[in-house]
Specification:
By secondary structure, this protein is mainly beta. 14% of the residues lie in helices and 36% in strands. It contains four helices and 20 strands. The chain has helices at 10-20, 149-160, 215-218, 353-376; strands at 2-3, 7-8, 27-33, 51-56, 58-61, 66-74, 82-93, 97-112, 122-130, 163-167, 192-195, 202-206, 226-237, 242-247, 262-263, 270-277, 288-293, 299-310, 333-337, 348-351. The strands form five sheets. Strands 1, 2, 3, 4, 7 and 8 form a six-stranded antiparallel sheet that branches. It has a four-stranded antiparallel sheet with strand order 11-18-13-16, with no helix packed on it. It is elongated.
């Protein structure tokens, strides 16, 4: 079934002028007719004849001058089949009431079969129409309207795009973050402490790789992959100087949220984060360099909770191979939200499958052990 471009009727044109003048409207119905009209008749029509079915119209804004109106019909209870030759879109004129706003005629018509009780048939219509001023069209969807295929498809897409976050508490307050990505680095559980030397360009290389090999080649992570690096940095003792960091052969990194460096002014712990992409040179060797500038003798700079992960991460976890308890690398709750947010209360929280599976497996092991002990007695 194919339709020609919708023709706005004379009454529709008059309503469009009112919209441009500031009046408002609402699209109300889509009606289906078996009548065949000539193209010359369409603009002057005020009503359709031989209307066979109708449905509630739902309007969606496209831009400032056009809207898309959708509706769906199906053959439940239809005693006699018919050919769909014309579709009319109806709207409310503030002075005249409901009018025939536009008409679409079929270039290839479609047959709506009668309801035989064996299977259902239906059609979905989407009418793209000019309105002049889309801000004056009521885009409120009738809650009683039948959901169209497009509605369901859009809902599926929205569900597929749900934003996720992780936490150890049901309200997201404990270790809230948008990623639970696995830590690629090892030996990160122990803090690294660097003593100030009151010199410029005091270098210290962090070693977080087994046998001086990077995790990228060993884990099959390709060049160009987005990664994130994070660490907590603080100073104690004599305060002063600056902190810089670089990953491998890259230049000294831009630290978020502190720019290209941290200027030590107090003992506050600062979480630094770096977003970058896997470099070809990192496939076999990746080093993490720290540079201290003018950090006084008597100062101790501590770097801890270091994590590098694929994608975006904001929560520290040790590498799974180093965890004494698997729960150290798992998050108890996963949150879901329609829109990305930095507010934990915008998410709906539920326990993660990973966490629940671990608990069930542990409980099964304990039950099995208990049964063996009981059987041994």
């Amino acid at each position: 079934m194919e339709f020609k471009q919708a023709v706005v009727t004379q009454n529709g044109r008059a309503l469009m002028a009112k919209l441009l003048a500031g009046k408002s409207t609402q699209f109300t119905k889509i009606k289906v007719s078996s009548t065949i009209y000539s193209d010359a008749q369409l603009a002057n029509l005020t009503a359709l004849t031989n209307i066979k079915q109708e449905t509630t119209a739902q309007a969606y804004g496209n831009n400032t001058a056009t809207v898309s109106v959708v509706g769906a019909i199906e053959n439940t209870g239809l005693g006699t089949g018919y050919y769909i030759n014309t579709v009319g879109l109806y709207a409310v004129d503030p002075d005249k009431g409901e009018i025939l706003y536009s008409v679409s005629s079929a270039s290839v018509n479609g047959y709506m079969p009668p309801d035989t009780g064996v299977s259902k048939s239906g059609f979905e219509f989407k009418i793209y129409t000019e309105v002049g001023n889309a801000t004056k069209v009521d885009l409120t969807v009738d809650p009683a309207a039948v959901a169209t295929h497009a509605d369901i498809s859009n809902l599926r897409n929205d569900v597929a795009k749900l934003k996720q976050a992780w936490s150890n508490s049901v309200d997201g307050a404990d270790d809230f973050g948008k990623s639970n990505a696995q830590n690629l680095l090892v030996t990160t559980k122990n803090p690294k402490k660097i003593q100030g030397a009151n010199t410029s360009n005091q270098l210290y290389t962090l070693s977080y790789f087994a046998a001086d090999r990077s995790p990228f080649s060993t884990l099959g992570i390709p060049v160009g992959t987005e990664i994130s690096f994070m660490a907590d940095v603080s100073i104690a003792g004599t305060i002063g100087g600056e902190f810089h960091i670089r990953l491998g052969s890259k230049a000294w990194q831009t630290l978020m949220p502190n720019g290209t460096k941290i200027a030590f002014t107090n003992e506050e712990v600062i979480q630094v984060r770096v977003h970058t992409y896997v470099n070809a040179n990192w496939m076999e060797n990746l080093y993490i360099d720290i540079r201290l500038d003018s950090v006084p003798i008597g100062a101790t700079v501590t770097v801890e909770k270091v994590k590098m992960a694929v994608g975006d991460t904001e929560i520290y976890t040790p590498n799974p191979v180093e965890a004494t308890d698997p729960l150290e690398t798992m998050f108890k709750y996963r949150g879901l939200a329609v829109l990305d947010s930095d507010n934990p209360t915008d998410y709906v929280w539920s326990m993660t499958n990973e966490y629940m599976n671990y608990l069930f497996a542990t409980k099964a092991e304990l039950n099995d052990l208990a049964s063996q002990v009981t059987g041994g007695n």
